[in-house]
Design brief:
By secondary structure, this protein is an alpha+beta fold. The chain has two domains: 67-249 and 283-330, no CATH class; 361-613, Alpha-Beta Plaits (2-Layer Sandwich). Helix content is 58%, strand content 13%. It contains 23 helices and eleven strands. The strands form two sheets. Strands 1, 2, 3, 4, 5, 6, 7, 8 and 9 form a nine-stranded mixed β-sheet that branches. α9 (202-218) packs parallel to α13 (286-347) and α10 runs antiparallel to α13 (286-347). The relative contact order is 0.05. Residues 1-25, 252-282, 560-587 and 589-614 have low confidence and may be disordered. It comes from Takifugu bimaculatus. Keywords: ATP-binding, cAMP biosynthesis, Lyase, Magnesium, Membrane, Metal-binding, Nucleotide-binding, Transmembrane, Transmembrane helix. The chain crosses the membrane at residues 98-119, 131-153, 173-194, 200-220, 232-249, 289-308.
């Protein structure tokens, strides 16, 4: 009941609205159904599960199993820089490098300020080596950030020397070397402030440990670099800090406690030494308070960093692999689509195919269309089934028809459409594309093109016969123009065809024609003769369904005299080609006029724009 109600509602709504308004709705519903089907296919595809749970990468080294894909992955960043590709998404390698560099600079500045802030607050002298390292690191960070900005946003406006530099530093090995230095600059900034106080002051030790924790976490940055390198550097930093905690860096006399006690120079050395020893024995060392806890914390932190670095690189590689797969599938789908469009264009004209994409049927009436039928009249004599069942004969016919099709590729014949082939008969028409006819300089320009195409077909046959041994094909063409109907038949295995009296007469012009010549109807003669084509008047031909019709032959005979000699007698072969029989030949017409017309006088009968003189 619900379905019937929905059908009634839909039919009522469709009756109340314009039919053209239904086309976008059909297209939208088709897209929604296609998207839903696409999602279902992805869910049911077992390859999608393998893509996430069994990625095509080595579990230990995280390199792609396919060596060519690994090579392409390593040079992908450099190719993007060389191609001067603009940033379109946040996942762009150049933009990702810019974000990594920006984060690295922020971490470096924050840690450097924190490390220099403590001596200023405690009124201690700044370390000269720390100042020098901070200055050098700041310059490196600034230069790297500048290059990252140019690569991400201004790659198309850089100088040639800068472009060469970017091409060099964007290589796989160069990026890892530079990345290792940049990602370690915050570490250098922190470790340069470590003094002997780390083993005596619990506050300073806690400060250094917190700073190193930030430094180690910062090694999760630069996801485009190898996770082995970043994790190994983070491990070295953690081990270095533990070494500073448990290994004595300075002698006891160089400790800050002795420097502070040295201010009381008026007291005795023994008393100050005894007091110092007693304070040292009473105050616990930082490694005694934080030693075990620091080992546990940094071990867990390093495990986390190793895990995160691995997952980040896996996700980054899967993202690249997905893009490669998507590009390959996109190219494959595009090739399939181009092939489908090519097949569709060879079955249906382009302007008809475009309309069939939005409608389910097509039919159109045309007022002025040219039609030709070209038959190889002696193909039956060439055909023999004794050799491979006639396969070789059809191969020869296919080559000849293919030569006809090649003519349609010429721009001058762009408004001609091949309709079909019926055995050894080739059918074509012009003027079916209304837009091309409207753009033409003359309304009958397509008829001239079609007639020239017919003449080119004869030249093709002559050239083809030069390669034939002991046999020559003979082409017979019928030409006519007028109104007709064009349309597509069927919903599967579509067939584009044309119908009407114009088509029937063109077919009769072929079947009643003469070998190696083009026979045209009287209406077509009126148009073509105004285009400076000269014809021979053949006479009246009895066309089945049409009665007597006057026909004309091209090319014109070169014989002199009022009436060409070849028209005075019609051979039995020509009579056999006539549908029914020849009604009245020019000889018969002249004979009927002999008693009343003198041969010394010439009377010209004017019929419209045509002149026949006897």
């Amino acid at each position: 009941m619900l379905q019937e109600k929905e059908k009634k509602t839909w039919s009522g709504a469709a009756m109340g609205m314009d039919h053209s308004a239904l086309i976008p709705l059909r297209s939208k519903n088709f897209r929604e159904r296609s998207d839903a089907h696409f999602v279902d296919v992805i869910k049911e595809d077992s390859l999608m599960k393998d893509y996430f749970y069994k990625p095509p990468i080595n579990k230990l080294s995280l390199t792609f199993l396919d060596k060519s894909l690994e090579s392409a992955y390593r040079i992908s960043y450099q190719e993007e820089v060389q191609a001067q590709a603009s940033v379109q998404t946040f996942a762009s390698p150049t933009f990702s490098s810019f974000l990594d560099m920006l984060l690295c600079c922020l971490v470096f500045l924050a840690l450097s300020l924190a490390c220099f802030l403590r001596p200023v607050v405690t009124h201690q002298a700044l370390s000269t080596p720390a100042l020098i390292l901070a200055a050098v690191a700041t310059v490196l960070e600034a230069v790297a950030l500048f290059l990252a900005v140019r690569m991400a946003f201004y790659l198309d406006s850089v100088l040639n020397c800068t472009r060469v530099l970017m091409r060099v530093i964007s290589g796989w090995v160069a990026r890892h070397l530079i990345g290792a230095v940049l990602v370690s600059l915050p570490t250098i900034a922190v470790l340069s402030h470590i003094t002997c106080e780390i083993q005596l002051s619990i506050e300073f030790t806690m400060f250094i440990c917190c700073a190193v924790i930030i430094v180690i976490i910062q090694y999760c940055n630069f996801c485009q670099l190898s996770y082995w390198m970043r994790s190994a550097l983070a491990t070295l930093v953690g081990l270095a800090l533990l070494a500073f905690l448990f290994v004595s860096l300075c002698s006891l006399t160089e400790s800050p406690h002795f420097l502070l006690d040295g201010q009381n120079k008026n007291s005795s050395l023994n008393i100050s030494g005894a007091t110092s020893d007693s304070q040292t024995n009473q105050d616990p060392h930082p490694q005694d308070l934080l030693g075990l806890e620091a080992c546990v914390v940094f071990s867990l932190l390093l495990l986390l960093v190793w895990f995160l670095n691995r997952e980040f690189e896996v996700s980054h590689r899967l993202h690249y692999h997905g893009n490669v797969e998507a590009d390959q599938h996109r190219i494959k789908i595009q090739n399939m689509r181009d092939q489908a469009d090519w097949l569709l264009r060879n079955i249906i004209p382009i302007h008809v195919a475009e309309q069939l994409k939005v409608t389910q049927s097509y039919s159109k009436n045309h007022d002025n269309v040219g039609v030709i039928f070209a038959s190889i009249v002696n193909f039956s004599e060439f055909y023999e089934e004794s050799y491979e069942g006639g396969k070789e004969c059809y191969r020869v016919l296919n080559e000849l028809i293919g030569d006809f099709d090649e003519l349609l590729r010429k721009p001058v014949f762009s408004n001609i459409e091949k309709i079909k082939t019926i055995g050894a008969t080739y059918m074509a028409a012009s003027g079916l594309n209304a837009q091309q006819c409207a753009d033409a300089a003359h309304p009958h320009a397509h008829l001239r093109a079609l007639f020239e195409f017919a003449l080119e077909m004869m030249r093709v046959v002559d050239d083809f016969n030069k390669n034939m041994l002991g046999f020559g094909f003979k082409l017979r063409i019928g030409f006519n123009h007028g109104p007709l109907t064009a349309g597509v038949i069927g919903t599967t295995k579509l067939l584009y065809d044309i119908w009407g009296d114009t088509v029937n007469i063109a077919s009769r012009m072929d079947t009643t024609g003469v070998e190696c010549r083009v026979q045209v109807s009287e209406e077509s003669y009126c148009v073509l003769s105004s285009m400076e084509y000269e014809f021979d008047y053949r006479g009246t031909v009895n066309v089945k369904g049409k009665g007597q019709m006057k026909t004309f032959l091209y090319p014109k005979s070169s014989d002199s005299g009022p009436v060409p000699q070849y028209q005075l007698s019609v051979s039995p072969e020509i009579r056999a080609q006539v549908d029914g029989s020849i009604g009245r030949s020019p000889t018969d017409e002249i004979a009927s006029m002999v008693p009343t017309t003198s041969l010394n006088t010439s009377s010209c009968h004017d019929r419209g724009t045509h002149h026949w003189c006897w």
